[in-house]
Amino acid sequence: MRRLLVVGIIVAILLVVLVPASASTTGQTYFRLDSLPDGSCTPGGLVEASFTYAVRDGDTSTHYWFLYNERTGASTTDVVGSIFGPEGPVSFDPGFSMTIPAGTQAGDQLTMKVIATSERELGTGSTITVNCNDGSVVSTSFYNIGDLGPQLPSGFVQRLITCDTPVYDSPAGTPVGDNAILAGQEWHVNPVAVDGADGQSWTEVFVGGYNNGYIPTSCVAPAVTGYGQ
Fold it and tell me: Residue 66 and residue 49: Cα distance in Å, rounded?
């Protein structure tokens, strides 16, 4: 499992409908958080997660990661995908780390949440809330998601980003919070650019949610022959 993208997206764009019954993992594509073994309250530090996941034969899954401070609402995000089945079940102890949100203080509670999408069945969600002082567990949950989750739009291609830029809600629109895409990252984008009201060219980018963002086309590298077509 490898990290492919680093994402600065807000949690609000990843809307899901939950199914009340708890998830079953038999023959299923799923992701389950097992523990956050290391406690830390230092903003900018790391929290490591132990977890188990599987991808059924013929399926593809993407893992959307969120880490919230329950007191302040501040969060950090990340995404890993696409993971092609069959794979697993496999466990990592630990296997992934996330940056502690700004403003975290001793005594705060941190909630890590992972949404695992599936192209063949219901996705799953998994959460674990811990005291940042020592990593002691406050609560956990594991559940099915009542739709297939946000999927990569048809026709989008992978491109290298060549400059730091905010993510906008529309061509020449408004920046979406503090979300940004950074030079050197690779993102899936619409290969057909559009003109904005500012007269500049804008590119639609898939940010892992149901609403896509836009960035200046000048920040998107052209296609490399044989790669990302």
Answer: 12
